[in-house]
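Entry 12.
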Amino acid sequence: MFTARQTRVISLIALLSIIAMAAHVYASEIDPFSNKLTVGDPVVDATTFIKDQDLRDAALAAIAADRFSFVVDLQNATALPTDVKKFFADRATAQGLADTIHTDRRQLRFDIKPGTGGLTRPGKGSSDLNAAVTQFFKDFDARVAGEAAVDSDYKALKISVQAQNKAGVTSNANQFFHDRFTTAQARLNEAADVFNIKKVIKFKGQKIALVKPSKGNDLTGHTSMFLTDRAAWLSDDDAITAARNNMRSALGTSSLQASVTTWLNARRTHRVAGIQLGLDRFAMKVDVGLAKQKDPKSKAIAMTKTGGAEDNQDSPDNNLDESSDDNGEK
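Predicted 3D structure (tokens):
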């Protein structure tokens, strides 16, 4: 078992990697010189974007089916290794498609040139807790609304692509990128708000220890551990939502700090649970010969990548409350 200090360090690295990755993804997407892009036909490039997104949605569905097969075949020594290998193959497919979709978006952006520009550095934040939490909810609500708008824009773009309507594709894609920019800015602001709230209340967090999966080949045990820990991870997600709602209700009251502390602890529990899933999956990889127990690089990646492609299928960074290194971002 990892010590509480080790767990805190790993959790901090994971959080910083999520925020850094989110900023990098947007910044690299708007860089017109990164891959020496040339202007193409927006209908053709939007068609490619939609096609690859559909393929990734299918890969995510396959991953969900793979997890269900774990439950069915948990005690089947012949079928379970095959299920696990397919699970990791489908995860790799989903990740590869995510990278492809990022390239597709960048090309489509270059085609239509929406002119959204770069993100703005968030302000310092208030030292008053009530004001800091109020600002958080302002940015949280803006980000949630932005994600809904992006989803709506994507659906409209898909309809225009199906009709091969160039004017519609151009208009829908332009709105899509503008709403993605608004959402990315709100997400960055939200991350700064969380950091500021922690500073205001001098949050240190409750002690949570990661559990090292047993050494040796125990695919049944490690898969069972993964399923149990994932169920806990999903439950922790619900706990975050409940705590955040309570925190909103506590604005302007004497119970605000206690509500904030509960919410931050719920976030931390969920983040650590996501890291635990990475360790579980690494142990499963070792069991089926896809990784080596003494491979420090692979293990480090598993410990700092939280959640996973199959763990989150909705919008970018999923509330900054969740633990997902890879999701269904459009």
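Annotation: Confidence is low (pLDDT under 50) at residues 306-330. The chain is about 70% helix and 0% strand.
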